[in-house]
Design a protein that fits this description.
Oligomer: single chain
CATH class of the domain at 2-182 and 233-264: Alpha Beta
Distance between the termini: 35 Å
Largest sheet: 7 strands, parallel
Number of helices: 11
Radius of gyration: 19 Å
CATH superfamily of the domain at 2-182 and 233-264: NAD(P)-binding Rossmann-like Domain
Number of strands: 13
Strand order of the largest sheet: 3-2-1-4-5-6-11
Structural class: alpha/beta
Bound molecules: uridine-diphosphate-N-acetylglucosamine
Order of helices and strands: EHEHEHEHHEHEEHEEEHEEHEHH
Shape: globular
Length: about 350
């Protein structure tokens, strides 16, 4: 059995689907602080299985012990549970350090006691900051974090490394995500941002459906071909499948290494303007947008070299950008049908 913390969230829910499709039994723990219990129905409609669910806060050690007592078969953990809004983290740093670090430390503390063999950790390309060269390999230098959110990812990677090096009786895989976008092709699950979206795609789809008046493109005076920032937009289902590979690798002891780090991206950098064009082409829906000033703290360009994940993890991003854009749009339309947005 696999424990998925934050399993009702955006990437978590897609990963639970792929784990169940691959035959794993799953228990989700989530405090529903940024997600919805109905996600479980979406997962059931896709896979035919409603995962086990515990509503608890992973920073609550007593609740987490109770969870492991109740599910003694947990062999692996995928840790998604974390706060992830960059701007909010600048305003509420203690909340971010507490949530993200205490969650991780509780899990690392409990794993040996309950015989858990490995933990997959959700990290981010934010650890590379503004990279010196693109595409970025796992060997690229780690740059000083520019937000408390980014710092929690760096510190978490260091904590895991120290714990593994101390001789802990388990393994870890650290996955550095580039920019996850899109939704399950069934439109049963997807991203459900709280309030005004800060990330590009939810803002774009909300604009396309008329919830927002226009999308602001933050800057077109960057040193890139069209002047807008460049990212590596990775389909969330592809991303989810990488987690299944990572869990299998840990539990089946396919590697000698006790800790491994993989970049998860497509290997292709796409500009913000190109992504908008792709959305409009793929869906036939126009997105009102306007160039505005740069957003403080934004990285100019970053995309992955995913060869290590391709060759060693045996995983490759497959979805086309247009299909990913269609999935994001289908999800936004489903939210409208259900009267949610
Ligand atoms: C950010 C974080 C990243 C985090 C991710 C998920 C930084 C440097 N990176 O990624 O660590 O994992 O969010 O929360 O903070 N854009 C617009 N208009 C919008 C929104 C975005 O033009 O309304 C542009 C941004 O300027 C950027 C690109 O779209 O160039 C992607 O932005 P976003 O989706 O917020 O992701 P990142 O900033 O790349």
């Amino acid at each position: 059995m696999i424990l998925v913390t934050g399993g009702t969230g955006y990437i978590g829910s897609h990963t639970v689907v792929e784990l169940q499709n691959a035959g794993y039994r799953v228990v989700i723990v989530d405090n529903l602080s940024n997600s919805n219990i109905e996600v479980l129905d979406g997962i059931r409609r896709i896979t035919g299985i409603r995962p086990e669910f515990v509503e608890a806060d992973c920073t609550d050690m007593v609740a987490m012990k109770a969870l492991f007592d109740r599910y003694p078969g947990i062999k692996g953990i995928i840790n998604f549970a974390a706060s992830k809004a960059v701007g909010e983290s600048v305003e509420k740093p203690v909340l971010y350090y507490r949530n993200n670090l205490n969650t991780l430390m509780n899990l690392l503390d409990l794993m040996p006691e309950y015989g858990v063999k490995g933990i997959v950790f959700s990290s981010s390309c934010t650890v590379y900051g503004e990279p010196d060269e693109n595409p970025v390999t796992e060997q690229a230098p780690i740059k000083k974090a520019t937000s408390p959110y980014g710092n929690t990812k760096q510190i978490s990677e260091e904590i895991i490394t120290d714990v593994i090096n101390s001789g802990a009786p388990f393994k870890s895989v650290i996955l550095r995500y580039f920019n996850p976008v899109g939704a399950h092709p069934s439109a049963e699950i997807g991203e459900l941002p709280n309030g005004v979206p800060q990330n590009l795609i939810p803002y774009l789809t909300q604009t396309a459906i008329g919830i927002r008046k226009e999308l602001s493109v933050f800057g077109d005076d960057y040193d890139t071909p069209d002047g807008s920032c460049i990212r590596d937009f990775i389909n969330v289902v592809d991303l989810a499948k990488a987690h299944v590979k990572a869990v299998g690798r840990m539990l089946e002891d396919k590697s000698e290494a006790k800790i491994e780090i993989f970049n998860l991206g497509t290997g292709v950098g796409l500009s913000v303007k190109e992504l908008i064009a792709s959305f409009e082409r793929a869906t036939g829906v126009k997105v009102p947008h306007r160039i505005v000033g740069r957003r403080p703290g934004d990285i100019e360009k970053v995309w992955a070299n995913p060869e290590y994940a391709n060759n060693v993890l045996g995983w490759k991003a497959e979805a086309s950008v247009d299909d990913t854009m269609r999935s994001a749009w289908a999800w936004q339309c489903r939210l409208r049908e259900r009267g949610i947005m």
